[in-house]
Amino acid sequence: MTRSVITIKKDILAKNDELADENRKRLKEAGILAINLVSSPGAGKTSLLVRTLNEIGNKARFAVIEGDQETDNDAKKIEATGVPVTQINTISACHLDAGMMRKALDTFDLDSIDTLFIENVGNLVCPASYDLGEKMKVALMSVTEGEDKPLKYPKMFRVSSALVITKTDLLPYVDFDITAATDYALKINPDLKVFKVSAKSGDALLELYDFILSGAHDL
Ligand SMILES: Nc1nc2c(ncn2[C@@H]2O[C@H](COP(=O)(O)OP(=O)(O)O)[C@@H](O)[C@H]2O)c(=O)[nH]1
Ligand SMILES: [Mg+2]
After folding, report:
1. pLDDT, tens digit, for every residue of 35-81?
2. Around ion ligand 2, which residues have CB less than 5 A away?
3. Which of 47, 72, 165, 174 has the most ligand 1 atoms within 8 A of CB, as the residue to mutate?
4. SS3 of 64, please?
5. Is the minimum distance from the CB of 203 to ligand 1 under 6 angstroms?
6. Whole domain around residue 116: which residue ranges?
7. Which end of the chain has the least Cβ crowding within 10 Å, N or C?
8. Domain with 56 in it: what CATH number?
9. How many domains would you assign to the chain?
């Protein structure tokens, strides 16, 4: 019984990887840098995106795919920045998959996009296993979540290229050891680029913007 369940899961992931490779090819041909934002719910993905688009939205041609189980609340916030956005509601699924991503890509004029942000469904487990065809995953983790998240959910940190520790404006009010959080994350993945930012105060965002804008160079 257990064996057949594992086989089915493998088949689903193999099919997903095939579609992801097609998406990746399509994105590469259109010269688009796609960044898959992953985190637990409420880590600050939408807030960071909105501030980023308001501040550097004129430095590249951005677009956003919003993934949530339900509602278009986040898409409305992105729409207010003037950047094209497509909402995907996954209903029962806990992650976006490459098939959903393909449908979302169909809604855009790909030749008029340089950088595509994908806000994945908030959850540190499932999105780690589903390649969408993106160039990189960027994991977010807020200072209210506990510094041992990288140890508890290592796969997400292993498959990500960067870690953004968010809400640093709250550090004086919470017992969060940011040095330990960084050490744990780097122990899981020594190649992670780590940023420590606040979408509220704007702290250290310029460094993150440089990373986003320069990412397009090595597509
Ligand atoms: N103090 C503080 N709150 C933040 C920051 N970024 C997001 N928040 C708050 O955290 C909550 C969740 O943020 P949201 O961007 O919706 O997270 P998402 O679920 O990852 O998209 C909201 O109430 C935000 O106002 C920040 O940098 N500092
Ligand atoms: Mg959100």
Report:
1. 999 999 999 999 999 999 999 999 999 999 999 999 999 999 999 99
2. 45-46, 74
3. 47
4. strand
5. no
6. 2-218
7. N
8. 3.40.50.300
9. 1
